[in-house]
């Protein structure tokens, strides 16, 4: 890695913050699922979110509108609303909450190169619902389509395919159990031909996602910024899955070093350095998609990082 790139990355890992909505510096994740929002007090605007009175600036974003700049309203399909993630704010591990990483992810979301889709079915009444989620490709007409066995080799071509998990709807809030399957969500380059970052996920679950604006929004956009306090997800990334290269300058390193906060290791293989040298070692134990925290030693048998983040999402049309 060039010296200037390395210095820039070091500054980010050392603690640069990202301004704007959804800043989770005051969010304290707790084991067992869920989080506490230190900025919420008596119904006031959570610290780090833009003022709700600021009109959303949707600009020329493909005719998007409403409180979250949705592309398609869910008003007439509230039993099966469809979304695309509009912003992601990762708070754990802290290595993923630095400015460079968040800018890579959220710029890719804004440019529709990181298309994480969500469909909720059976939402006509409180009770059991099914969530379909995974990577999608944008179509020329502004719709999106879930991946279908077209992930590049030599790895499994089905790893980007959508996954289904069971959940519960209470009022306007969806929660789910954990997904046993392992799947991946990629970030593509500007012309969509190469993968610059791939997130291989285990034990994925929705801690909570509250729908609004006739179920067309999760969270909202005020001015040019999103607030991502209405959605929270938990997942895990195993060390054995984290040997892939992140290739988005100034970050050029294996995913394991991005997660551990050791970007200086660059493309060195994950297993080549002792755990005692990792700034943020793994903190969870995964057996397939069954992952737990607090039952392993980070320096010996923990084999995955717990990842927690807030998100916002806006309504889109997902075609088959």
Verbal overview:
The protein contains 3 helices and 20 strands. It is mainly β. It has one domain. The strands form 5 sheets. Strands 3, 4, 5, 6, 7, 8, 9, 10, 11, 14, 19 and 20 form a 12-stranded mixed sheet that branches. A two-stranded antiparallel sheet has the order 1-2. The protein has a two-stranded antiparallel ribbon with strand order 12-13.
Short recap of the structure:
By secondary structure, the protein is mainly beta. The chain is 9% helix and 38% strand. It is globular, with a radius of gyration of 19 Å.
- The helix/strand series, from N terminus to C terminus, equals HEEEHEEEEEEEEEEEEEHEEEE
Unreliable spans:
1-47
Approximately what portion of the residues adopt beta-strand conformation?
35-45%
Task: Report the average pLDDT across residues.
Answer: 84
Judging from the principal axes of the Cα atoms, what is the shape?
A: globular
Rg measurement, Å: 19 Å
What structural class do helix, strand and pairing data support? Answer: mainly beta
Counting H and I runs of at least 4 residues, what is the number of helices? 3
Largest sheet: 12 strands, mixed
Topology (SSEs and partners):
Elements (H helix, E strand, L loop, with lengths): L2 H11 L13 E3 L5 E3 L44 E11 L6 H12 L5 E6 L5 E12 L5 E3 L16 E8 L2 E4 L6 E6 L6 E18 L4 E2 L1 E3 L2 E3 L3 E8 L6 E4 L2 E4 H6 L23 E4 L2 E4 L10 E12 L2 E2 L1
Parallel strand pairs: 6-20
Antiparallel strand pairs: 1-2, 3-4, 3-19, 4-5, 5-6, 5-7, 7-8, 8-10, 9-10, 10-11, 10-14, 11-19, 12-13, 14-19, 15-16, 17-18
């Amino acid at each position: 890695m060039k010296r200037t790139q390395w210095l820039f990355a070091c500054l980010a890992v050392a603690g640069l913050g990202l301004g704007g909505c959804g800043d989770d510096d005051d969010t304290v994740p707790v084991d067992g699922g869920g989080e506490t929002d230190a900025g919420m007090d008596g119904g006031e605007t959570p610290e780090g979110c833009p003022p709700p009175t600021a009109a959303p600036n949707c600009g020329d974003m493909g005719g998007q509108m409403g409180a979250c700049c949705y592309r398609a309203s869910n008003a007439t399909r509230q039993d099966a609303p469809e979304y695309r993630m509009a912003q992601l704010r990762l708070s754990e591990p802290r290595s993923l909450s630095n400015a460079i990483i968040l800018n890579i992810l959220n710029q890719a979301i804004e440019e529709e190169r990181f298309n994480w889709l969500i469909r909720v079915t059976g939402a006509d009444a409180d009770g059991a619902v099914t969530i379909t989620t995974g990577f999608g490709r944008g179509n020329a007409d502004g719709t999106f389509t879930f991946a279908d066995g077209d992930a590049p080799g030599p790895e499994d071509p089905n790893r980007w395919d959508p996954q289904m998990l069971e959940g519960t709807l209470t009022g306007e809030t969806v929660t789910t159990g954990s997904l046993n399957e392992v799947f991946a969500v990629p970030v593509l380059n500007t012309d969509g031909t190469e993968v610059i970052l791939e997130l291989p996920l285990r034990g994925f679950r929705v801690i909570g996602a509250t729908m609004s604006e006739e179920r067309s929004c999760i969270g909202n956009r005020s001015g040019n910024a999103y607030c991502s306090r209405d959605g929270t997800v938990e997942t895990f990334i195993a060390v054995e899955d984290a040997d892939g290269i992140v290739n988005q300058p100034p970050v050029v390193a294996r995913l394991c070093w991005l997660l551990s906060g050791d970007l200086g290791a660059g493309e060195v293989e994950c297993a080549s350095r002792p755990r005692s040298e990792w700034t943020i070692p793994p903190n969870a134990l995964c057996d397939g998609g069954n992952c737990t925290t607090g039952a392993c030693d980070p320096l010996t048998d923990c084999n995955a990082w717990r990842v927690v983040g807030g998100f916002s999402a806006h309504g889109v049309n997902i075609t088959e």
